[in-house]
## 1
Amino acid sequence: MNASEKLSLKVLTPEGLIFEEADLSAINVPLADGRPIGIRPGHAPLIAETVKGSIHIRSAKKEDKIHLHAGVLDIRDNKVILLTAGEVEKTPDSIAEPIPTEYDRLMQTLIHQIQLEDKNEQDIQ
């Protein structure tokens, strides 16, 4: 790995940039599918959903971690951007937790209705 093959990381919240680090050799991020992803220089472009957890970063000088709420990960051209509600210790839960939307309520109602219909069909048979 030559000097031009390093990662940079930016963590953005609705309030702005809360963390920035360059010259990184590795970043590990927990993804929504339950598995962490290891990011090294030259990683393919990717957009993925993250979960609340620790982001581990490593450079030639140090290893560190930051604890973030769930968000979105964007990897492109050795630039890693995390969009999140903020750091776990510094963000009120009322901001970090998703707010149920009308869509969520309608989907839950639809699922419930389908389950009732399936149960009724099974009772008839």
## 2
Amino acid sequence: MEYTIQNEILAVSIKQKGAELFSVIHKQNNLEYMWSGDPAFWGKTSPVLFPIVGALRQNTYLFHAIRYSLNRHGFARDVDFEVEKRAKDSIIFLLRSSAESIQRYPFLFELRMTYTLEDNILHLTYDVKNMGNDNMYFSLGAHPAFKVPLVNGSSYGDHYLEFNKTENAPRWPISSEGLIEKEAVPLLQDTNTLPLTKSLFENDALVLKALKSNIVSLRSHRHGHGLEFDFTGFPFLGIWAAKEADFVCIEPWCGIADSVGHDQQLTSKEGIEHLESGERWSRCWSATFF
């Protein structure tokens, strides 16, 4: 099933599977902002990353001395969510833990994803609740893929990312197993812009930690269209595109892949979030389209 919410400016479409955003159309400028999901390059458009972000060492983690297995980015992106509430300009999707999920992730939870429109802004709020009696450990991230080039007649290299503060931030390389290497390498050096080139992602995603910025914009030297992406409250940011594909992913994360040599203990995983019994956790990203 697919659902569309809209207002006078935006029409936004979401799949029930994974509560995955797949279309954002600006009615006034007649532009589609989302990647097409062409499976020849990458068949997804905006998967939710839960209950882990990135890869585990050997796809395995340990909790209370029990070994569990999860594939990269977890399972929520591949599961049908319930539609809990729907209005013209908003929709709430709900995923609950199940007998199947507990085999891979031994926590009782509710995960809500709320899409809301406000003029030319899309808000996506993630709400996690610990429904069990013990502490719950998790990571959560977003993975929206925006179309580049945005406008016919422009090229990939006409576009760039602009941060709202000057950055001196290295990238953390990703190993062949999908793990975070121990040493960072230079990337952003006394600048607030990152020119987009397809060669930028030859060695997987750019992984950034502890940025000063909370907003990054996708812009072009050739036209005035783009988007402003607010990731306040997310301590990690990934930037990625599949090889030779016409998109860029802007990925705010609360959590990160295991580092090379990690002891596989879930509770000591970098960036791990935790909730006590009955507690709730919430984060929101917002994109302004122009």
## 3
Amino acid sequence: MPHTAANASCDPHGIPAGKQLQLPSSLRPRLFVVVDTEEEFDWTAPFARCNTSVGAMKHVDRAQSIFDRFLIRPTYVIDYPVASQPEGYSFLQEIAADGRCDIGAHLHPWVNPPFTEPMTRRNSFTSNLGRELQRAKLKVLTEMITEHFGRRPRVFKAGRYGFDATTLAVLEELQFEVDASICPRMDFSSEEGPDFSDCDALPFWISDDVLEIPCTVDYTGWLGPLRQSAHRMASLSGLSRLKAVGVLAKSGMANKVMLSPEGNTYEEMRRLASALVGRGCRAMTLSFHSPSVAPGHTPYVRTTADLETFLGDLERFFEFFTSELDGIPASPLDFRASCIHGVFDR
């Protein structure tokens, strides 16, 4: 396997540094779509094991129909409530059987048996559970997905981005090939979660067998290399009360953007993708939560008007990416295979 690139730029907070990919400079930009496919719950309330409703899954075609038009094969990383209930998995079975999507695993520890850990915010991060409990939960989830889709999941994404070296060891043991858990430029340490603030959005080999395809989060703005430090300073408690982060964004100096239609406008996503391609990035991930396909289940889609904007921004971004950036859709597993063999289509 070609691991000849420089070290990946990850801060060593229990996160393996790995080896960065060396992609051809002529490679057309690749876009992965990863959907956090999960139960509905109140994002402002404490975590509860009784929150297992998956009613929004019957509307997943609202997004899938857009993916189909752009020949995008998304990866639905599904958690235990989705994988274990017909109301959750049945809508994906036909899509997967037609080869129109891939199915991965998404671990929400608080609703994934076995339930031996206390129900705390700290324990909502998979990486805090210890190796044996992480393995036990992921094994149960993997077996449930295999039972209902006829094949083992090979892509993993930790719920709440709860990933570290221990989680990686479990993934290797259970023969996962791609991880999509790292959320660059984000720091969850105030909640006893991981700190990814010094990670970037470039894919890299996080181990000999596991390819890391992070979420795509980074800074835009004319402050250039000062963007990150300015944004960090503006986020400090004293300045945050003065809405300093918003001032930076509106002035065009620095804005932290996630490639997601949840909480980010089409224009922000467009600027981020353009900036990343200009910086040499040739692979990026658009992500969102499955309950957003129906109003009232996430903070990002509360009304029918929100849903129209959400779906419209998806479509506009895919059109922009494929036409103006000359990008193409890709799947994490196919991309990994291309990286191993050094052969990329188109």
## 4
Amino acid sequence: MLTIENQQLKVTIVSAGAELQSIYHKNFQLEYLWSGNPAFWAKRSPILFPIVGTLKQDTYFYKNKSYCLGRHGFAREMEFSVDSQEPYSIIFSLKSSEITLKKFPFKFEFRIGYQLLDDKLTTTYTVLNKGKEDMYFSVGAHPAFKVPLVENSSYNDYFLEFNKKENLSRWPISKDGLIETKPVSILNNQRVLPLTKELFLQDALVFKHLESSSVSLKSSKTVHGLDFSLGGFPYLGIWAAKNADFVCIEPWCGIADSVNSDQQLVHKEGINKITADEIFERSWEARFY
């Protein structure tokens, strides 16, 4: 277990998957991250790379060759190295290997940086193409925040508030984990999405084309919550396991395959391409209060 902390926040991370384990506000003596209870969902904040979501038949094709990748890719299950650590920050890295090349035929270096400033945690994903040809990939976050945050409040007391009014439709997920073709309206010129456990009985809420640059987790029963900056991520997932006391706020550069996908990696919706030696970087930031 590795720790970074300042006067307000103490954050712990494990090198396995470079996954957050705790976000603790020392002034409020309040934990913000889900506990990872395996009875519901054992993860807390997995990293999604080199794909986000599910591939059709867990398979994609690149240069006439098929490759198999499970949901959300392999990074969350791999051991990261610690490149550097300071009291307020830490950088992890994962490099391509014989193991990864069998599933993902690109040479890469993937870095994850966590940095504290006052009451904010910034998480940065950096992808470096170490090969000689274009590299295609997706990357995303999956942090699970505890709901309810404080005693004497319930799950239904909480809501998500976007910083702009939204006309949002969710893209339903098929039983195979693929994106359906017809969206379903969920917000009509509104900013607030009330949280209920029934909201996630049909899997995650998947959104495209948000107007907002941030979303907040709030409650009328407490002053405590968090503001989540979405950065340059074009997709957003909102999810919780069945009857679990958390909500995931998931900014994605990538998305699951459509039910109509031709499974060609270069055609995949939301896929990112970087040339040889090019660097891709995205960050999300959360403020805890």
